[in-house]
Amino acid sequence: MIYVGIDAGASATKAVIVNKNDEIVSYAIVPSGINFKVSSEEALRKALQKPGLNSEDVLYTVSSGYGRALVNAKSTSSEVTCISRGVHKLFPSVRTIIDVGGQDSKAIRIDENGRVLDFVMNDKCAAGTGRFLEVMSNILGKPIEELSKLHFKSSKPIKISSTCTVFAESEVISQISQGFTIADVIAGLHEAIAERIYNMSSRIGFEKDIAYTGGVAKNQGFVDSLSKKIGLAPTLPEEPQIICAFGAALAAIKKHNESISHE
Amino acid sequence: MSSQRERSRVLQSTKKIGELILEYFSKAWDVRAQGKPLAWITVFTPVELLRALDIYPIAPEHFGAMCSARGLALDYFQEAEKAGYSQNLCSYSRCGLGYALSGMSGLMPPPDILITFRNSCDVYVKWWQSLHMHLGTPLFAGEAPYVLTFEDLDNYVLDYVVKQLEQLVKVAEEKFGLKLDKDKLAEIVKLSDKASELWLETLKLRRFKPCPLGGRDSASDIFPLVVMQGTDEAVKFYEELLGEVKEKTNKREGIIDNEKFRLLFDGIWLWYAFDLIKYFENRGAVFVYEPYSDAWAYRLDASEPLESIARKVLAMGLNVDIDLRIERFLDSIKEYQIDGAVLFSNRSCKSWSTPQLVTADILSKKFNIPYLLFEADMADPRQYAEAQIKNRIDTFLEVLGER
């Protein structure tokens, strides 16, 4: 018998399957596209397929993320709660979480029981999120996976002064025409996004240990820039992108147990 | 989201407000037809004095809020933007200017005089100058210096504002042949004071658990206090309201069922997304205090009407020092047993939003009160990201629930 957590995010939809011992059995990540119902079904199908499971084996599903209300799940939970739960299970010593996703970035402060004490999120602007890097990777013609590698080839990161994604786009184009290398531009972009997130997170402070989650935490270049600003080495999950879905799956176990005890 | 039971309600008195507002505006057209003077005012202008002079006051800011709530504001915004007014300007001003530029045939009759005081808001004077430029209507723009200490309400600053009120009376005499009747003014000041007293007493009842009056009530019921001050109708409205809220309090009847969280709201309400209040209430969160709701309540003394009106002009709303404002804000935390604060950073209103980060810090660090800060505009729906804001609200309520 298994439990499912689905994180229907702005950019990707993630499904995580866990067993009753809180262990991850399988997971899948698919692009969200424009239909969360379709993407969540696809993610679940893929996650079930790997270990050869059926949808009948699922005891309880909890959804989270932007599209959570559109996912076929028994209940919903917010990302902040799910991320905190997921991180606390994997790394009980973590007190600060920085999550950078497709459309949102958040900093969360939790206590020794994984309870959320405080959180901040980016304002309406997308400049401190994964979307910023997606837009830039398009302009530079470099796939998002390559940004990381190129980052470490830079010797002199450019300075991006505009905080607006749209204006930063033209700034990048002009910097390249002035002869800066793509590596310097990419390192500069990572600096810019790290600075924004650092400033936002400073409002709740940086108590040790610090974990990074969300799709952007897979980008080593960004991780490097942010860690240098904070001055502490981060705790990184093996797959940072699925932590919210993992936390949702843990919530599914809890919800299921509660529903049994009420019967 | 699992299906939510409708828990949100409004008071019987609040249900009458819509009609009261429409009546007030339609009476303005009657006043115009009778050839009596009609003033467009900003909402911190002394209506008591105008009423005593027999000048009928209407506020384009109300008009902006109403247009926004009814989905009519966008046309006026675009009209103003076409004329060169930037989208970064206050949305009330863009709505009012857009209306002025498109013929003024709706709810609000054209003005015979434009009256403003520069208190609370830095846009007022420029907005009124622009209206004057477009319409050619006479303009009276008073200055009420920012109140740094409450001593200013008794020293030369007070004299300065009293002199300007006297000047306003002179302008009314010269332009419209009106005379100020001192007895009438005293009577109006008495009525205004009564309405403020009743409203403040009503708001105090929100200290009780469960809270008998919600955010939709306080946001709507404020209307008579802003432009109808000094009328019997306003006093009657607040008497009935207080009666109803007292009765609910005595019966320990909350405005929502199963009150779970008591919240403070800082800012102007989002008129086009007024149902956001319901969204909170349906999840067990009730608003019990808003600085907005007592911004217009000011006690007056009929024995010195002009001085007392001048103090009100100085001390209303946002015209006091930020530290004094924050102090008042923090006093409410204990008084109203507040669990969390919702701070709306309003793109239109810098005077309001400026201290919010400082306030947020004090709330969380000194009082251990969680807060939610979100960005949008009070009247312009183009600055609003519904999914993002509701996502934050859900998270905020989950965090409160875990405490």
Overview in brief:
By secondary structure, chain A is α/β, with parallel strands linked by helices. Chain A has eight helices and nine strands. In chain A, the strands form two sheets. Chain A has a five-stranded mixed beta sheet with strand order 3-2-1-4-5. In chain A, strands 8-7-6-9 form a four-stranded mixed beta sheet.
Describe it.
The complex is a heterodimer of chains A (263) and B (403). Chain A has two domains: 1-91 and 241-263, Nucleotidyltransferase, domain 5, CATH 3.30.420.40; 92-236, ATPase, nucleotide binding domain (Nucleotidyltransferase, domain 5), CATH 3.30.420.40. Chain A contains eight helices and nine strands. Chain A has 263 residues and is of the alpha/beta class. In chain A, the strands form two sheets. Chain A has a five-stranded mixed sheet. A four-stranded mixed sheet of chain A has the order 8-7-6-9. Chain A has helices at 36-49, 79-90, 130-140, 144-151, 165-177, 182-201, 220-230, 243-262; strands at residues 2-8, 12-18, 24-31, 58-64, 75-76, 96-100, 105-110, 116-121, 210-213. Chain B has a domain at 15-180: Rossmann fold, CATH 3.40.50. Chain B is built from 18 helices and eight strands. Chain B has helices at 12-15, 17-33, 47-52, 60-69, 73-82, 91-101, 123-135, 156-176, 182-204, 215-221, 223-227, 232-250, 276-281, 305-315, 322-335, 350-353, 356-366, 386-402, and strands spanning 38-41, 56-58, 113-118, 139-143, 261-266, 285-289, 340-346, 371-376. The relative contact order of chain B is 0.14. The model of chain B has no long low-confidence stretch (mean pLDDT 94). Classes of the chains: A alpha/beta (263), B alpha/beta (403). Chains A and B meet through strand 5, helix 2 and strand 8 of A and helix 17 and helix 18 of B.
